[in-house]
Amino acid sequence: MTDILLNIKDLCVSYATKKESLEVLQYINLEVFRDEVFGLVGESGSGKSTLASAILGLLQNPGKIDQGQILFDNEDITNMSDKNHRRFLWEQISYIPQGAMNCFNPVIRINEQFHDVIKDHGGQKAYGLNERKIAQLIRSMHLNPDILDKFPHQLSGGMKQRLCIALAIVLNPKLIFADEPTSALDVISQRIVLETLSKARRRLKSSIILIGHDLAIQAQIADRLGIMFSGRLVEIGSVADIFYNPLHEYTKKLISSLPSIQVKQNLNILGADKSQGITKGLKGNEATSFIEVNPGHLVAKSY
Questions:
Q1: 271 with 265: CB under 8 angstroms?
Q2: pLDDT of residue 281
Q3: Which of 107, 132, 241, 286 has the largest count of CB atoms under 10 Å?
Q4: Which residues touch 248 (CB under 8 Å, ≥6 apart)?
Q5: How far apart, in whole angstroms, are the C-alpha atoms of residue 64 and residue 79?
Q6: Calpha distance 105→91 (Å, rounded)
Q7: Structurally, how many domains does the chain consist of?
Q8: pLDDT confidence of 48, banded at 50, 70, 90?
Q9: What is the rounded distance in angstroms from the CA atom of residue 53 to the CA atom of residue 139?
Q10: At what angle do helices 187-204 and 131-140 cross, to 10 degrees?
């Protein structure tokens, strides 16, 4: 894969407080290719969802982009106008948020919510999207089209999550952000949701940025992984690189935290322990330098 769809250069994001400005993303450099699944992994508070919000243009005050550039399909979208941004979202980049239980308006039927998205974001793609095509999309999610006449409270968590996927792909976007799409679901529902998402991506030939904590899920469907720690990307590589040849100290601890049924092991506590070298070299006012140890396998120079 050599065709770059999303290219992020030296992206820095901060949140302003009354006393100071807190840097939450520091010098993010990332390339996502066409027709790939890129997994973004890290502990809570590492900056994964903030990165998604910055790319999607959904940062809320007091958050702001301090510097950097976001290129999507060779177009600079860092400071896109509100009018263009409204058309850009869902038509080019869509979003599957955390917590599908709460992402639908509880007093509006599902069908109306689909039409709201199509009307507000569809542009030229809205033409030809009739009830029959929406019903076909719902069937591809392994759901009965009758579900469109229901209210959100009448649906299970797995149904809502698959409807979130359908809503995200209704306008055939080139890139889909999936922010922990299987959180709060049982394992059976997780499998159905992941299979549905994977099939939809292959049919559309879209790319996915899959955000989450679950390394097992990432290993199943991701092509490459990016490891985030303390607001920085510290390692990028194929799934095999990350799982079998982790190089950064944080990545090693993340992988070693996976439970094993074959070997009894002590719990390896993760955290910003400088004596263990995790935060070595991660200075807030310096860009992260990467070393390419193997083709496509990048690690922060401080490792």
A1: no
A2: 45
A3: 241
A4: 227, 229, 234, 235, 299, 300, 303
A5: 11
A6: 21
A7: 1
A8: very high
A9: 30
A10: 130
Q: Is residue 130 part of a domain?
A: yes
Q: What are φ and ψ of residue 263, in 5° steps?
A: -125, 130
Reported as a single tens digit per residue, the pLDDT across 87-136 is: 788 889 999 887 766 789 999 999 999 988 888 776 656 656 678 888 99
Closest CA to 219 of 239, 192, 198: 239
Torsion angle of C-alpha atoms 181, 229, 237, 3, degrees rounded to 10 = 70
In whole angstroms, give the CA distance from residue 197 to residue 166: 9
137 phi/psi in degrees, rounded to 5: -65, -40
Residue whose structure tokens are 């569809």: 122
Is pLDDT at 248 greater than 60 in this prediction? yes
Q: Which residues lie across from 208 on neighbouring strands?
A: 37, 176
Q: Label the pairing between strands 21-33 and 4-16.
A: antiparallel
DSSP, collapsed to helix, strand or coil, labels residue 67 as strand
Residue 132 sits at φ, ψ, to 5 deg, of -65, -40
290 occurs within a structural domain: no
User: Mean pLDDT across the stretch 47-63?
Assistant: 91
**CATH number of the domain enclosing 212:** 3.40.50.300
pLDDT in tens, 190-244: 888 888 889 889 998 999 999 988 888 899 899 999 999 999 999 999 999 999 9
Interatomic CA distance for residues 206 and 250, integer angstroms:
30
Helix (H) or strand (E) holding 111: helix 110-121
| Residue 155 is assigned to a structural domain of this protein | yes
Full domain range(s) for residue 207: 4-224
Distance CA 281, CA 301 (A): 8
**Across 34-47, average pLDDT:** 93
Contact indicator for 26, 55 with CB cutoff of 8 Å: no
Q: What is d(CA 76, CA 85) in angstroms, rounded to the nearest whole number?
A: 12
Q: Cα–Cα distance between 264 and 261 in angstroms, integer?
A: 7
